[in-house]
Write a structure and sequence with these properties.
hydrolase, single chain, five-stranded antiparallel β-sheet, disordered N terminus, nucleotide-binding, alpha+beta, 42% helix, five-stranded mixed β-sheet, 858 residues
Length: 858
């Protein structure tokens, strides 16, 4: 066999296993475990070391799906190293479950890709840290429910007791404990002899084994065990680990389990089933209606705070009382009100003003947002919701210091929220168009994809959801409120928002629309992954596409209302902004829904007059904007309020009331409700008051009069409120869940740098100080004097040979490089850098030393 045909030696470490990987495989590792590339490792040995640290391994294990995690747990109780056949028996059992056998290669490949497993199939090795985390111990039981091996359980047992067990089970005595324990272990792994041994036991003894077989494997016994327990102890089927505590050895449990490490391996993900299906047109129309309602709700919220919102708590956030007031104003529950508040905050539409008496108010971005087309306004909100880590669902809960979590307050970030939102919507996108899944079906799939690690996953009560499950439930409800879904199914704009492909086979328009849980759609075991739009450009393109898809689904804004004789106006759809703004001042909203009902009252008409409108203006406006004739009662209402409006004038003295009709002033003085205003007559047409003008205005209006404010010059003051805005504010940044995933450019540069550093670290060279006789690097940069370094460089220029150098850059970072010097002059060496694959120039004073490469490395 020629040297070229000689098979590569089996890797002896994770670093060697990484060294034989190609760039595509290394890129997959760094993409799936971004903590390994922050900062970029100097070489593959450092990459392997970092991949084996506890924090990194825990993070990687938490991102495995259930079957891959079960595979890792099985490897933790297998021999080290373990052949593939042993792992297959632990996962598939003696019956060799075909589904498990078919899925196991994928799980092993995933563990290898994640650098949690290395070695050939005949010597599979779980990285040491993962084995320590998953292997059973008295303090940390294994998720498999298996206990220690016979060798581990008998470590503290007396040699005489071990020999007694051998005699009881019919084995010959040995001269030492090691061989005795080996013989006992061989007995427990022999199927025929174990069957005979268990057949001798009484029924009570078998019941004890059945209770311990799936874990926990530990039990309690008294100092004088019962006969059926004594039978187990005498045969080594239970072994003592501490006074009063016994354990079922791993070999015995595996026999009783028919060789399986897990009671229920889950090789395939649970299906996401559709509970109901609707025509896509119905889904899109429902979602569009929800989108309009969402815009109206946010607009209403911001109008409530247009002149300044509630105060900011000292610890930050909104008080419980102010949240309740907001919920009442929006006619929603408090959790839903918290969602709309957080959504507006995430979109940068509201913020605190930063004043001494800090209050919430709209930001300048709100005015810009209101001018956008309707579809773009919705897309702005949806694009802010999808990546947000602030989670309104936790509002009202308690933080780690037992403090109430308040809306718009601190400690609401949950870094897993964006990933869960995107994954839930991706699962919906994987269903047929118009299909809505059951919530439990989605939660079961998410729990398989990211299971809880350890025994707590089995102790979870049915209604006790983990954080990811709660995030998924909130995602389903929030997506419906926002109009991303309609009737529980993903709408076309929502599909575009997450970058999901368009359905290839849309349902025909004439298809029936089954309803209810009985209309099950086909099972989908594998939902194709939907990539998250990575860069700002991709996200902006997805948002714009969603806005374009929503626009034709929305009704055109109306330029009219329908006036009715009962002093109401009906808006049968969304109104143009100018019409909505004027009508919002002239009338009060009585009910909302498919059509909005406005009611005209004396107070609302007076509000319009206070804002500078005249009776003629209001009559002209209603005539122009109504498709029905203006009812006579409404005309009379406007004229009556306008006739009385401004007859009384309130100005600053402390305050005064002026009226040309002294009979009206007599009426005020005679009214007992005006006693608190401190009024007294100064002249037949003038009253003085002890209250300030604002209080006097409100007091007279409460009595039933319609006074107008007066300036110092005697002119009527227009009571148009000034909108309050915060200084420019940026929307809150999401809190990342660990290091960000590297992009392709960073991956390419990182792999190139790691390869370069590894080449320099592993290239053979001639022995130098601190090196072994074989020329292996001693672990430090080469150290030579300035004169020797210069002479070696100049000689290499003449011979064209490559050199191994140590180099320290301007930041003080040391590295090893393999270079071929081209020119040495002026204190610099210009050389072809083999590690960087380019020509570079290095200052000689930064070269720590130089060494010649070994002959076989040139």
């Amino acid at each position: 066999m020629s040297p070229e045909e000689k098979p590569a030696a089996a890797p002896r470490s994770l670093a060697e296993a990484l060294r034989v990987r190609d760039d595509v495989s290394l890129a997959a590792l760094l993409r799936s475990r971004p903590d390994l590339v922050t900062p970029v490792p100097t070489d593959l040995t450092q990459l392997a070391t970092r991949a084996g640290t506890r924090a990194s391994v825990v993070r990687a294990l938490e991102r495995l799906d259930r079957f891959a995690l079960q595979t890792a747990e099985a490897l933790a109780v297998a021999a080290d190293p373990a052949p593939y056949g042993e792992l297959l028996r632990l996962m598939a059992g003696d019956e060799a479950d075909p589904a498990v056998a078919a899925a196991l290669p994928r799980a092993v490949a995933l563990l290898r890709e994640q650098a949690l497993l290395w070695g050939a199939d005949d010597r599979l090795r779980l990285v040491r840290t993962a084995r320590e985390l998953l292997a059973p111990s008295p303090q940390h039981p294994s998720p498999t429910g298996l206990g220690p091996t016979v060798r581990e359980a008998t470590a503290g047992m007396s040699p005489g007791r071990i020999q007694e067990i051998l005699t009881t089970v019919g084995l010959s005595s040995t001269h030492d404990s090691v061989s005795a324990v080996s013989a006992l272990g061989e007995l427990f792994t022999d199927r025929k002899r174990m069957a005979a041994l268990l057949a001798e036991l009484p029924g009570d003894s078998r019941e004890v084994l059945d209770r311990l077989v799936w874990g926990p494997p530990y039990g309690q016994v008294t100092h004088d065990p019962a006969a059926h327990l004594r039978a187990l102890l005498d045969r080594g089927l239970l072994l003592p680990t501490a006074p009063g505590t016994v354990v079922l050895p791993r070999e015995v449990a595996l026999y009783l389990r028919a060789g399986r490490a897990h009671r229920a391996p889950e090789p395939v993900p649970p299906p996401v089933e559709a509970a109901a299906t609707h025509r896509p047109q119905v889904v899109d129309a429902t979602a569009a209606g929800q989108a309009l309602a969402a815009l109206a709700t946010v607009d209403e919220l911001l109008k409530e705070w247009d002149e300044g919102g509630p105060t900011v708590l000292r610890a930050g956030g909104l008080s419980v009382r102010d949240l309740k007031r907001t919920a009442v104003a929006l006619d929603v529950s408090e959790p839903v009100a918290a969602f709309w508040l957080e959504l507006a905050y995430a979109a940068g539409l509201i913020a605190s003003d930063g004043e001494a008496d800090e209050r919430y108010a709209a930001t300048p971005a709100y005015d810009e947002w209101r001018e956008l087309p309707t579809g773009e306004r919705w897309a702005r909100l949806a694009a802010a919701w999808l990546p947000a880590t602030r989670t309104p669902g936790v509002v009202g809960g308690r933080d780690a210091k037992d403090r109430t979590l308040s809306a718009l307050g601190p400690n609401l970030d949950r870094s897993a929220a964006p990933e869960v939102r995107h994954r839930v919507l991706a699962l919906l996108a994987g269903l047929p168009e118009g299909a809505s899944p059951g919530a439990e079906s989605v939660l079961a799939r998410l729990r398989w994809e990211r299971p809880l690690r350890g025994p707590q996953r089995d102790r979870r009560a049915p209604g006790d959801d983990d954080l990811r499950s709660r995030l998924a439930r909130w995602t389903l409800s929030e997506a419906e409120l926002l109009g991303i879904t309609g009737r529980g199914a993903l709408a076309a704009p929502g599909r575009a928002l997450i970058g999901a492909p368009e359905p290839s086979h849309p349902a025909p328009q004439s298809a029936p629309e089954p309803e209810g849980p009985g209309d099950k759609l086909p099972v989908h075991h594998h939902t194709p992954p939907v990539p998250v739009p990575a860069g700002p450009a991709e996200r902006a393109a997805a948002t714009a596409h969603a806005a374009r898809l929503l626009a034709p689904l929305l009704p055109e804004p109306l330029d009219h209302v329908l006036l009715q004789a009962d002093l109401t106006a009906v808006a049968p759809g969304p109104l143009e902004r100018e019409l909505a703004d004027v009508l919002g001042v002239l009338a009060d909203v009585e009910s909302k829904g498919g059509a909005t009902v406005y009611r005209f009252t004396p107070g609302s008409v007076r509000r319009a007059l206070d804002a500078g409108q005249t009776a003629a203006d209001l009559h002209a406006f209603l005539t122009r904007r109504s498709r029905t004739p203006v009812p006579q009662p409404l005309t009379y209402l406007i004229d009556d309020v306008a006739r009385r409006h401004g007859r009384l004038r309130v100005g600053a003295a402390s305050a005064y009331v002026r009226c040309d009709d002294d009979a009206t002033l007599d009426e005020i003085l005679a009214d007992k409700r005006a006693a608190g205003l401190g009024l007294r007559r100064l002249a037949p047409t003038v009253l003085a008051a002890q209250a300030d003008p604002a209080v006097l205005l409100e007091g007279l209006r409460a009595i039933g009069f319609a006074p107008a404010a007066e300036s110092a010059a005697g002119d009527v003051v227009i009571a148009r409120a000034d909108s309050r805005r915060t200084p420019p504010r940026t929307a809150p940044e999401p809190v990342p869940d660990g290091p960000p995933a590297p992009d392709d450019t960073l991956l390419t540069a990182a792999i190139r740098a790691v390869r370069a550093g590894d080449l320099a670290a592993t290239t053979p060279r001639k022995p130098g100080p601190g090196d072994g006789e074989d020329g292996a690097p001693g672990g430090e940069l080469p150290r030579t004097g300035a004169a020797e370094t210069l002479a070696t460089m100049q000689a290499a220029v003449l011979t064209g040979e490559a050199l191994w150098i140590g180099y320290v850059n301007a930041e003080g970072a040391a590295s090893q490089r393999v270079i071929a010097p081209i020119r040495v002059e002026g204190g610099f060496v210009t050389a072809y850098d083999h590690t960087a694959d380019e020509v570079r120039t290095y200052p000689l004073h930064r070269v720590t030393g130089v060494a010649e490469l070994a002959d076989d490395a040139r």
